[in-house]
Prior knowledge:
The structure holds two protein chains of two kinds. Chain A is mainly beta.
Amino acid sequence: MAKHRFGELQISDFRFQIEGKRIAWAVVLLLICAAVIAAPASLKIGEMTLEGDILDWDGQKIIAKGHASFTAAPSKTPLKVGESRLESIKAGTITIVLTTGKSQKLKEASATGEVVIRAKRADQDESGTKTLLRDVYATAQSATMPQAQDTIKLTGNAFVKVTEPNVAQPIATLSGKTMTVSLKDHTIRVEGEPDKQAEFTGATKEGPK
Amino acid sequence: MRRGISGLLIVGIAVSILAGCGKGKPPAAKQPPKEEKTSLKAEFHKANIAWADSKGRPLMEAGFKEAVASTSGENARVELIGVKAALFRDGKKASSLIAERVVADSRTKEITAVGGVRITSDDGSIAQCEKVVWKSSANKLVGSGSVRLTKGNITITAERFEADTGLTKVRFYNGKAQVR
């Protein structure tokens, strides 16, 4: 396990050396990207459900307040390598903005208040022969996902953890004050605070959970 | 001939009831209060009524299969069965309403629709529920019982809702929205 602390962490390399073993940074970064929502090409969101104690609807925007949850309907189509699928968002308030027209699609989404995001991503294993389905778990005080900007921003105690089936340790964790994920150039910017620096933890596989 | 006379009677009662709803408080009686009792009751089949506000702008136009109108003291009540109605806001049609039964009450100044209620807005939103109370002066619809709103590929279910007459803004309680 390797731990790194940074005032501001900018990750754009695709391979990183930790404890003599290489971690496929492309995989890690894409997993983190996939953790949130709405990558135009790689993140799949089909049917979705939004619930809350109160739902305010005006024809194009739905705001769920109180025990809000956003759930993507299970898909029978298996994920291909490189694809991600959002599973759920839970938060105090979740807002989704839809496109206009008869068949409305998700245009942008945001969540505030104890945000918890879960997603899955398909990647090839190190041998390149098997497809791994990894779990991405992210928390923050708020998350904004404007599709047009190809960025995802987690704000307030942002934390991302990537786990793999049958592996005891998370394969990566990131934490900081804010995290900005660029879906276009596959970079992630993590900002810490003066008294609480951004942190990255990478782990090698240590056997079954 | 007798049917025609009773028809005119019920239309007269219905119009006066609904006009009373739109004009606010009924005129104060100068005489000592009388004991409340049904003073008039009439029935009618297949007709239309229109309800206007104090400025003469339409509030509701309804067609129905049957109607029963009654007055009790200073209050008047009309019950319509098998109703198809247009609801207006600021003199313009905002939505359509279908219900098994609609009751207009001059005392509460509300229209209550019960049974298989279906409201269709001009932009194509359809709200269905068991009961809707329409407070026209407040531009407010309050629906309850198996609430379901659909528009295009969006379906929202809830325990109850509050909306404006045209269903342009709707608040759902314990709601679930599905985007397909």
